[in-house]
Amino acid sequence: xxxxxxxxxxxxxxxxxxxxxxxxxxxxxxxxxxxxxxxxxxxxxxxxxxxxxxxxxxxxxxxxxxxxxxxxxxxxxxxxxxxxxxxxxxxxxxxxxxxxxxxxxxxxxxxxxxxxxxxxxxxxxxxxxxxxxxxxxxxxxxxxxxxxxxxxxxxxxxxxxxxxxxxxxxxxxxxxxxxxxxxxxxxxxxxxxxxxxxxxxxxxxxxxxxxxxxxxxxxxxxxxxxxxxxxxxxxxxxxxxxxxxxxxxxxxxxxxxxxxxxxxxxxxxxxxxxxxxxxxxxxxxxxxxxxxxxxxxxxxxxxxxxxxxxxxxxxxxxxxxxxxxxxxxxxxxxxxxxxxxxxxxxxxxxxxxxxxx
Length: 357
Fold this sequence. Notes:
Blueprint: H1 2-32, H2 37-60, H3 69-96, H4 99-106, H5 109-117, H6 130-151, H7 162-171, H8 174-204, H9 208-230, H10 242-270, H11 272-276, H12 280-292, H13 300-356
Helix pairs in contact: 1-10, 1-12, 2-3, 2-9, 2-10, 3-8, 3-9, 4-12, 4-13, 5-6, 5-8, 6-13
InterPro entries: EamA_dom, EmrE-like, WAT1-related
Keywords: Membrane, Transmembrane, Transmembrane helix
Membrane topology: Multi-pass membrane protein
């Protein structure tokens, strides 16, 4: 039983990454059909809010703190940054590039979060410590990989059928690939910003299911308003076809609902470092689907840049883990000494109490 319990987080995270990879592939095919990015976000977040609302109500109704205007404002802006704008940039980049290339920028999120947390004091680096030096090295390696992803495409390593190759060249030219890289970088920065915002919100409103349901609701409203502003055509609101409907429902329930619940459980069981370390599996699964189903070309720049980003991410996460272990090790002797001192003081106090009696 203990062995099964230990393997549950591993199996859960692999399942989550596989599910998210399927979401990316399905959304790529839907975007190729010409459906609006904002419309996808509107329906996806609406479905997520409807799915998470009853879960949040029954699981957190006893310990839920009171909602204030300040908390609602924080959740509103958190939804704007972490859901609406992040998903819009990633979906736009997904349309301009490929699913595999898009997932490369998902791997940059932990590194971007670390860099952005430094000025706010949420992350600290001790260059005298081995873990601190590893974090700086991992950051530099990941930034180098990100630059290669953005600036260098390289020769294709796989070949597409001739008919699809023409479509690929027409839709994925160098200019569109460069625009897609910039948009994906913006999406990665937005997502990293959301993690910093969420750290503050989590302290004031620690109910993760309720906050996610509210964020999904706010994001759906924001996306719907943007759709109305950019396009008043009512016919665009209709999603036709079983495949498109299935994709949006799957992305809402599984991608924005179940996957978040499972990841939150894994964070509680093994911590955020363990959960973040599985993100490269999404790209691995997507690469298999991308080549076999969508017949997309894989370029040497994507492979080289992705390898450096993943390597840098693992170096940085190792550094964080090493620093945490050193911190615990340093505090253990102090704790034991304090315990010994307290025991000695207790022993010395016994005779004095006896004499007083």
